[in-house]
## 1
Amino acid sequence: MHIRLGGAAGEVTGSSYLVETSRAKVLVDFGMFQGGKLADQQNRLNDWIPAQQLDAVVLTHGHLDHCGRIPILATLGYSGPIYCTLSTVEVTRVILLDSANLQESDAERSNKKRIRAGKPLQYPLYREEDVEQIMQQFKPVRYSAPREIAPGISIRLEDAGHILGSASVEMTIEDQGKRRVVVFSGDVGPKHAPLLRDPVTFSSADVVFLESTYGDRDHRPIEETKQELLKILQGAERAREKVLIPAFAIGRTQNLMYHLAEMFRNRDLAKLPIFIDSPMATKATEIYMRHPAIMDDETKALAARKQLDQDLSELRYTVTREESMAINEVDQPCIVIAGSGMCTGGRILHHFKHNLWRENVQVVIVGYMGHDTLGAALVHGAKHVKIHGERIVVRASIHTLGGFSAHAGRTELLEWIAPVAASQPRVVLTHGEPGPREALGKEIQRRHGLDIAYPLLGDRIEL
Ligand SMILES: [Zn+2]
Ligand SMILES: [Zn+2]
């Protein structure tokens, strides 16, 4: 029995593991490769997936870099179950439909050029109907409840505290008289994040696959970051300015809402109008609100007495394009949270076009910005940017806040591995660039004397 790496091996995207024994084949995550020139090609190379012999798929959470290739399984003829938490089913549906739409429109645009250039047509990786088809194969599982998913293979999902529904997977594999316990961390969240419970740790395993995104550094403490945000908002309120916050629709937007609710409740800040200007964030927030049972105790208590609704009485969801455009006319201090997170598309672009050139505007960057994105240009102090082909001068104030990550920092990853390290597992580091993952590996080895593997794409880990 062995596990094959199908992505996130020396990088942070394309998460995927194929577990194979003499009697079963199970896929854990099937995420999309993102960014980089090779990504599209890598997403299309799927001959290593024995789609028709697969017994089951397990999904850790709904981020695209973990679920983004799952609809391809529909096109390859996979008709078996996909196991994850109920809230992950709901989040994944939103993410995959959006992804299919993007791919269909990208293919359409590039095909217009391809036809004129005499090149063969490009097909989208999958279409909306493939998503609809594969979504019918999802089977929700409860946290902590063991479940047999294939001959000799059972799983238990535990909260990973990363986004709503996120899970680490403990997999027990039995084959030809051998029994192995393998833990897949999935993406591990930080401790004390708003809304979610802290990540669950494990006490014993033979092999642990651990993410290493921030294996070389810690984030700024969340309390400091909240104070920074508060200062910016207080300043904007006094000066009657608009605040623009590009944010990821799932996770980051809801965390921001929670922080704002707290500021209003404590009367640190006068209630400003807040616009959630992203159809996807609106859908994601509805999903969060449907699952109070898996929130942390603080959020449960607030939800039970409808406190958050009261705190956020000035919050508006802008659904239509017209409603979104109308925010430009708002002539009072307000907060606009709009997609997309890295400012590569979405409604944040039209807000930037109307506001970046003004002096009395505050832009707050709260998330990671990939190379060559508009968001990264702003973070690095660009004096001009291009939006929809138009050159815009940047006169707005740009603030970058570093403490709102959905990932555990180095110290928290080391705390996560400590309890299970006592059982002397082999540690396989994935989901990290080479620098961070080696830095984390060296420290785990120094502290616990464990064997650390740094596999590459296509490598096999024997069990
Ligand atoms: Zn994630
Ligand atoms: Zn990830």
## 2
Amino acid sequence: MTRNDNIQTDLREFLAQVEAGGELQKVSGAHWDKEMGAVTEVLYREKVDKSPLLLFDAVPGYAPGMRCLYGMLGSPLRLALGLGMDPEKAGDRRAMLDLYRERIKTHEPVPPRIVTTGPVLENIDRDDDVDILKFPVPVHHELDGGRYIGTACGVITRDPDTGRVNVGTYRVQVADGKTAVSYISNGKQGRIQRDKYLSAGKPCPVVIVVGIDPATYIAARYTLSDNVCEFDWAGGLTGRPLECIEGELTGLPFPSHSEIVLEGEISPTETVPEGPFGEWTGYYAGGARPEPKIDIKRVYYRDNPILTCAASQKPPHSHLFERCFIRSAGLLDSLEGAGIPDVKGVWVHQAGSGRTFVAVSIKQRYYGHANQVGIVASQVNPIGYVGRYIVVVDDDIDPTDINDVIWAMGTRSDPKTDFTILDRNWSSRLDTMVTGDKLYNSRVVIDACIPYERIETFPKVAQTSVELAAEVRAKYPDVFG
Ligand SMILES: Cc1cc2nc3c(=O)[nH]c(=O)nc-3n(C[C@H](O)[C@H](O)[C@H](O)COP(=O)(O)O)c2cc1C
């Protein structure tokens, strides 16, 4: 495990790197009520992962310096910077994935270092002084049920049995200046921890980082096994302990360079309506429901704080690129961990909202290999939750190239024999195809590999060979430019 000082645990250092890379755009005067979200979306739809990081300032009704940021890691360059990789590699997804996985392979958790000072303590609002609407909290989408302060955030809880601290990115809506409410999907570690307190009739202590640094944000959204704390994992990513402060009320740790941190407790008895919210599926799915109320009793924030935002919606959107990248890496890890040989590549596609359409490439070694890979991929992290289509292709197909994948489906799979449908899988109320309280879905594994018994005799691919392509390029340079 080597130390990587290029990975930032301070958002402002990261912004300086992004600005130097030419991808920071400052926007002045956009309103918190739908405008910031709309500017982000419209620009992203036009430019996709060439869209800049947007830093909104001078929000109407708020003092200059109270800022909102969208699209922190939403381009290959910004993700490379966030992960401390050579920005030169940002053009090549497969190379980036390999580099990242190399780092993850030697990853060893590094526990945080508890400190008593840090920029986030520049301002502290306590009890009656708490007003979470002092920040320009956006209504991100036109039909959202309210203002969401937590989107690109980290919700921190502690397991009452084991003491393990969990950090998860879960949406957090403002109920009023002193209360909030979060939607944590069933099965998520934060939900399991929270419910242990609530079912015992006790309030659940919570800290919510709503102005988050890149390293902690990457860790918070990562599905880790439930004995690893995300702070330790972030420390392992950077190779140095994350400096954390302990909250005055809960003792829960949070990064000392955070921009804005809320601290309080989740009520075992009171609920408030939560939702709807434009979600990663591309819909306002899930409607509005009562969720446990969160009383905010402390707010810690830096001078001129930055609220970090990530508004999901119909793909593509400003935080989908990194989502697909990180999930692809996570799925490769899971498949390798399951002991399956010769998995050559994985891509979790943006068009599938980063969950519902996944391609895995393999070098076929035995009968049933493709189906085995597909079935395992359909159930393990991070696709086990709300997966839908898993396509397994041969290693001459680039899984990141949707045209290549569809071509393989159309020419190497026969729906009658090569589609395996799995029922009663882990889903969510956000799943548009799930109704009622039974949160199951079905999914299909598509074996789009050449049938193993026909590998030697299958028709040859009609594509110019690498050698002939190089020859004609060299011979006719004017044509290729
Ligand atoms: C921007 C963003 C928003 C998210 N919002 C939610 C959410 O509202 N509820 C939820 O259950 N998961 C949400 N997730 C997914 C979780 O963060 C993710 O599954 C994570 O691994 C959960 O952490 P855990 O494994 O510690 O439970 C979101 C992820 C991202 C990147």
## 3
Amino acid sequence: MPKRLALFNGLPPYPGGKRRLVPWIFANLSKHVPAGEWSKLTFLDAFLGGGAVSLFAKAQGFASIACNDWSYRSQVVGQALLRNQNQILEEADRICIANSPASGIFRAQFTPHTFSSRHAEMLDQIHQAAQAIEDPTQTALYQLLLWHLAGDFVCFGSSIGTSNRPYAEALDGLRSWDSLPPKRYLDHSLHSLLQPTWKLVEKRIKAINQSVFGGSPVQLFQHDAIEFVRQTPGDILYLDPPYAQTVRYEAAFKTIDRLLSGSMQADPPSGFSKSTDLLNALFESAKSIPVWILSYGDKTVSLEELKAQIQAHRPTARITTHARQYTHMPHVSENRSHQELLIIASPQ
Ligand SMILES: C[S@@+](CC[C@H](N)C(=O)[O-])C[C@H]1O[C@@H](n2cnc3c(N)ncnc32)[C@H](O)[C@@H]1O
């Protein structure tokens, strides 16, 4: 990743996250609203997700930002990296985590099927340390650290809660290392599993701190997106709903959500993941906001169809359409023919 984007290092891995697309999105926005005007405008991000778009907007110096996502996990990112303007993880936090007693809760709940005992213990210590503090920003920073490490403590980031059992069992001495696929010794998937735990903690603390900076003031909401858009005044609205028939966030993040919120109850599935039906209600609720930016995938709908749908709500707007080849999570995806769509509508 180019050095200038080191500010993204603290963001958690997020399927459908836009960190590699933000320069393209904002370059196209500037053709509708010149960048020189952004400092007077409020930017709304209705589906915050892993936070890439709001973090980039915060660095661009918008007058203010309001971001929203109904998931608890996105509140963690929003609190730790978006609302937070200057608080980083410091030596005192390392000491606090190191001295925090591991209650054994994570060990009981997540070994040996998800994490090895040693890794579950570190997650437990961070969780306990987070519980013991009252400052919401510091709590969120600890939770974000926990999220990052949960990804480091499994063979592939995408295997949290699914297929890490053989690796966790090998680390715990419950099965022979010889029984693991030989490929895993060659493709670096075991690399972070075998690192000393504290080395990974240090690495992630550094990465998280790189994403903490003073920028636009940020407000954070946890509403249904349609309500958020209806109620929140703003100038530029970014919409990045789950694309129909692709990632189901509530299922993909089941284990992370359990780790972060402690709740065993999975969130209900989003209607946006099922079909494009909710898009009309979303556009209808956005009528008072002058500029819209929509990100979408081409799996179930074409660029022309999406444009026509927006045009029906914004008959007099200037609408531009953009598309590019894009592979989400290229390390695991085999689909290279996917198109990322972008539609921008603004007053003529
Ligand atoms: C495609 S992701 C957003 C990715 C984000 N732009 C980024 O760069 O990381 C979609 C997000 O929408 C959230 N979501 C799904 N349905 C929602 C709803 N009805 N209201 C609010 N958020 C919703 C999911 O929790 C998920 O985080």
